[in-house]
Amino acid sequence: MNKYKTFIIFIILTAIWSSLFSIIKYFIWGYLQDSIAPDLQVLSGYLSLGGIFAYLLGGAITYTFLKKYLLFSLSFLTLLFVLLAYLVPIETNFGLAIIISSCGFFYGLWVVLRNILIAIEIKKTGMADTKVNAIISVIFIIFLIIGTITGSKIFEMFGHEGFIVIIVLLVISSIVSLYLDYDKISIKELFINGFNNYKLDRQKKFKEAIKNFLPELVYIYKNFTFIIIFASLIWAIGTVVSQKAVEYSVEEFSKLPSEAAFLLLYSSLGAILGNVASSFMGKKRWKYFFFLNIFLGILIILFPHFNGTFTTVGVMAFLIGVVFGGSTNLIESFFLMKIGEENKKEYGASTYGLVLSITIVLIMFLASFIDKKFGFNTLMYTLGTIILLVNILNFKKTLGK
Q1: Which sign does the torsion angle of CA 30, 44, 269, 123 carry?
Q2: Out of 45, 112, 125, 160, which residue is the most buried by the measure of CB atoms under 10 Å away?
Q3: C-alpha–C-alpha distance, residues 242 and 251, integer Å
Q4: Alpha-carbon gap, residue 379 to 32, rounded angstroms
């Protein structure tokens, strides 16, 4: 049971942070509808913009500092910015960008840590890479949806005072993170050896980590180019499709944001099924991966032709969720297993996060432009075609393995 202790705590933290940032995004979306009224793509873009800076420094930071205290610090710093948003009204796009991008920075560091811990747990628990990643992905998806529905509902029920829910979650995260035991240095050892010695050692280690960042980034990117780029595209496009389905339902079917957000529940159920099924596909990973992405591209292209009712949109969201969940698990679990084997966890996780964040920013703002300029149908055709083209271009790297 001891070898699963930290894995269980890790699962709890994944649940908290997955729901937390969904709540922040959808709560603020509802909160600002009567003022600057940002769309979800802009909010996601700001979150990812902050994430870019987190991933630039993430490898060095996670390599240098104790993981439990780093997680504690992330919770505390995010708490300060949420308090700022609670106490000082957000009245301009600049203020929105500062608050949301800062939260995105802290969330980005959490994502780097999450991927590092997955790589660690693959070795520590002895479970298959597809199973460990599937468990964390399922928890991530479930609580992402819970946070999405809750975030919209919290604003509808409590208005401005809903910020208190976010603050409580951050306090819980701070406490739970202190029970992690990945690090070799304990509080007792810090007292014995002296905090000053520890501080000097960390400063030296951080400088070395910063110096090594670029060579390590180039190494990771060079050796995992296809995996990093394609995984990032799938995540970015999957996020856009799910969010546009919610916005479409609010506009076309006169649904409240909290009601429309239930579409994400359907897609999450599909993604859970896809993750579970793909956890048994490791031996023929790339063949399954290739065909899943063919289905994903086709389903996204067909989406505009099956959106006549809220029910049909829900069915399409579920089917897209199935292939999305299977596809992301197959490619991500392979990458995290490999960087763990090569002892490149910190730099590998931050490099992947950096490319993912940049991709999400680009896709989010591109999606917002296409949707406003050409409409929902053209947006879906474009996103589905991107998936199909990238999959076909990488035919030899997928079906050939």
Answers
A1: negative
A2: 112
A3: 15
A4: 25
Contact 268, 141 (CB under 8 A): yes
Tokens of 328: 């992301």
Rounded Cα distance, 164 and 170, in Å: 10
CA quadruple 199, 123, 323, 276: dihedral sign: negative
Separation between Cα atoms, residue 334 and residue 133, nearest integer Å: 9
Structure tokens that stand for 241 in this block: 């499709």
pLDDT at 31 over 60: yes
Residue 359, token pair as written in the block = 């991709």
Domain limits, the chain:
2-398
The structure tokens listed for 374 are: 């050409």
The CATH architecture that domain 2-398 belongs to is: Up-down Bundle (1.20)
pLDDT digits (tens, 9 = 90+) for 127-175: 888 888 899 988 988 888 788 777 777 777 777 677 788 888 888 988 8
Structure tokens at 116: 């590092």
- Give the model confidence (pLDDT) of 18-28 as tens digits: 888 778 777 77
Residue type for 34, please? D
Q: Give the global pTM.
A: 0.75
